Amino acid sequence: MPKPKISVVIPAYNEEKYLPACLASLKQQTFKDFEVIVVDNNSTDKTARIAKSFGAKVVEEKRQGIAFARDRGFSIARGEIITRTDADTILPINWLLQIIQIFHHNPQTAGVAGTTIYSDLSPFFTTIFQYCSNSWFYLHRILAGHYQFAGSNFAVRRNIIMRISPCTTNLFLHEDMDFSCHATQLGKIIFDPSLVVFNSARYFKTKTFTTVLRYIIMGIYTLATHGHPFVRNHQRF
Question: What is residue 56's DSSP assignment?
Fold first, then answer.
């Protein structure tokens, strides 16, 4: 069986409500040479059945956690380029085509990060969150020396993924930030604000202030753990 050009990896835990729309948007992509891998992370609902009904490859990951599920999907992906998105994400019809074009025009690039629009908020808050999302990428570039991957919208070359070992067991590390810190050591990460996906804002509607604060602390800890490349490159031992 010939290998697809792109693999789309979707970690999923009890996503029967949101997954159908995500997979339907992938069915409508203008670029057709891709596979879809849904990683069932101990779901107790119809997640796996729905994924199979859309023709996705379903694999199980018994270790609970999005980093474990992500890496399980990456490990079996066959595409030259591997993308990551979330089960509650709607992908524009040209999403995969745009990713292919970015890599084609930037052959030395290790990965590509895009932005997110929270489509189920009021227009005012949608604009505010998009501005904050884009601003964070540029701030991360200053703080860490490179752009960050965001779980719902990024792509990496397969040969880069096969050469890195991101952390999955340290619960204080932010998985997307940690992954990007490892990937950027092997190549440049591009942030393209025109590479947009549409997400549910359920996280902001259901999480408590304590949970949000925890994620902020995780981000600070991750940045402190990896350090800025300028500092690492000029340390004397």
Answer: -
CA–CA separation, 176 and 66 (whole Å): 10
| 72 Cβ neighbours under 8 A, 6+ residues apart | 39, 59, 61
Pick the CATH number of 6-232 from 3.90.550.10, 3.30.710.10, 3.40.50.620, 3.40.50.970: 3.90.550.10
Q: What is the pLDDT along the chain (237 residues), one digit of tens a residue?
A: 789 999 999 999 999 999 999 999 999 999 999 999 999 999 999 999 999 999 999 999 999 999 999 999 999 999 999 999 999 999 999 999 999 999 999 999 999 999 988 877 677 777 777 777 788 888 888 888 899 998 899 999 999 999 988 777 776 787 888 899 889 989 999 999 999 999 887 766 665 566 667 777 877 778 778 765 644 554 443
Give how far Cα 168 sits from Cα of 13, 66, 71, 237, Å. 17, 9, 9, 28
Question: CA-CA distance, 125 to 168, in Å (whole number)?
Answer: 33
* Kind of pairing between the strands at 81-84 and 89-90: unpaired
